[in-house]
Amino acid sequence: MENPYKRKKEPEVNKQLILEAAAEIGATAGWNQVTFQAIVDKIGLSKGGIMHHFRNKEELLAELVRQSLIELTEWITEEKKSAGIEAAPMAFLRFVVKKSGDLHYRRTMKVILQAALVNEEYRTMWDNWFTEHITGGAVEDQTVNSLIIMLVADGLWFADNLGVYHISGQKKAQIIDKLLTL
């Protein structure tokens, strides 16, 4: 007879649970509050179970940022397709405005923002991602209009994730309409 108290080993499921818990704790309480113990308390996995996947908090953050950037790439690609937009900066702006109320998106973006603020390595990851997926090359090669759109998108992204300015959906739509004239 199988021991009813023995937990099934599902490494990929457990890894995702760890990442989800870390992201949620980081987004709500700040990255400094993400500890293996906090994750244990949230999902009930042992510290050893967490350490099976991540030797330390930095390794966990690196994987969380990497997965967040993959997810962001998928979202931006989908936004370009669904809106019929070729220009990545405008797709990024529309995506930021459209997703600003989505809790999963906000959590993902907060993780990226917090990581970039605390560590040069993550700023470089973000910059490389942005260069590849949004600017399509060096910023110097972008038109002034594209740069304006990207900077507005960044401003709205920071405002949403930092909880400042409280820009309404109507105002965001007006901003997009104004930028479409560029």
- SSE ordering: HHHHHHHHH
Strand content: under 5%
Mean pLDDT: 86
The description of the largest β-sheet is: none
Q: Any idea what the radius of gyration is? A: 19 Å
- As a percent range, the share of helical residues equals over 70%
The N- and C-terminal alpha carbons lie at a distance of 70 Å
Low-confidence stretches: 1-6
- How many H/I helices? 9
Characterise this structure.
Keywords: DNA-binding. The chain is mainly alpha-helical and 182 residues long. 75% of the residues lie in helices and 0% in strands. It folds into 2 domains: 1-55, Arc Repressor Mutant, subunit A (Orthogonal Bundle), CATH 1.10.10; 66-180. The protein is built from 9 helices and no strands. Helix 1 packs across helix 6, helix 5 packs parallel to helix 8 and helix 6 (103-118) crosses helix 7. The chain is elongated, with a radius of gyration of 19 Å. 27% of the residues are buried. The model is unreliable at 1-6 (pLDDT under 50).
Quick tags:
HTH_TetR; 9 helices; disordered N terminus; 0% strand; DNA-binding; mainly alpha; 182 residues; Arc Repressor Mutant, subunit A; DNA binding; elongated; 2 domains
Briefly say what this structure is.
The protein has helices spanning 11-29, 36-43, 47-53, 57-83, 88-99, 103-118, 120-135, 144-162, 169-180. It is mostly helical.
